[in-house]
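Appendix B: a complete holo record

For completeness, this appendix reproduces one full record from the ligand-bound portion of the collection. The bound molecule is pyridoxal-5'-phosphate. The inputs are the chain sequence and the ligand SMILES; the output is the full three-dimensional arrangement of the complex, encoded as structure tokens. No fields have been trimmed.
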Amino acid sequence: MRPRPNIAAMSGYTPGEQPQVGKLIKLNTNENPYPASTKVMQAIRATTETALARYPDPHSTAFRHVAGGILGVDSEWILCGNGSDDLLTMLTRTFVGEGETLRMPNPSYTLYRTLAEIQGANVEMIRFNDDWSLPDSFGSSDGDPRLAFLPNPNSPSGTVVPMDGVAEIAERLPCPLVVDEAYGDFSDSNCIPLVSANSKVIVTRSLSKSYSLAGLRFGFAVAQPEVIEQLVKVKDSYNCDAISIAAATAALADQAWLADNRRQILSSRERFSAELSQLGFRVQPSQANFVWCTHPEHSHESIYQQLKSGGILIRYMSYDGWGDGIRITIGTDDQLDACLSELQKIVNA
Ligand SMILES: *Cc1c(COP(=O)(O)O)cnc(C)c1O
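The structure of the chain with pyridoxal-5'-phosphate bound, as generated:
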């Protein structure tokens, strides 16, 4: 067996735990705790009855039409993926070759590093400032980056680089800038308006979090048509299946569902953040469906372990050059109350 040396040397991406049994309260991978729109279930039922014998539409035309209408862009500006991770893969394949450089902030989404390693490319990590703003070097042409990824809102912090800041970075960068808006629907602002002004800006979105469809696998990118044209060449021909296209189209068409769900998550997030602060946590104000926090007196890894023993799963994260902390997904109010009461016991022990 002779895998390419860069594949042999890499360890691969480790997703958050997905226990397949048991009655855990799962607050570790930013899934939405509420069921998707009933329109989604109807679309899935109709598709399973009629459309499975044939190959799906390779261009997800129905979805792109609906999404374009909502976002105010033509459907040639949209490309669909098997989850937004699929789009991040296409982007890296298209722009970053062996020995070239991919830029990302740190701490952020560690999958970007894995994607670079698959290409045999170098990763340049630019450390966030202590207040989660970006240093000027993120937009620099030094080191000849071929692609830059910016999760916005960022994970694990839930913080946002405002649109004018992103525009300025994109102006200065010598390469495309992928604004990963997996959590964009929970935020006060987004960067879709920048796409028409600058062909270097590419926005990606996911239906996993804000539309409660993590199990379905659907995401999309918004970019100028000449960018989409290049990306299409590296995608799997049928990267989105018939069921996911129908379900995702129905989900986007139900914007009233999205608005209600968003209102609920944001209200739970504000209450939960305030109560964590009461328990002595330092809580980073979040624009996503999770919160990042640290505690000045307790071990974060031990908090994670103790919650897990009590049947509550959260995410413990440790980053080189930064430190560690915990990230907790906004679940239902009952789930968050259960988490708060365990945390209260832990910090008062
Ligand atoms: C969850 C997440 C994704 C992946 O979304 P999928 O559509 O489920 O593949 C991408 N980027 C970030 C920052 C995420 O947190």
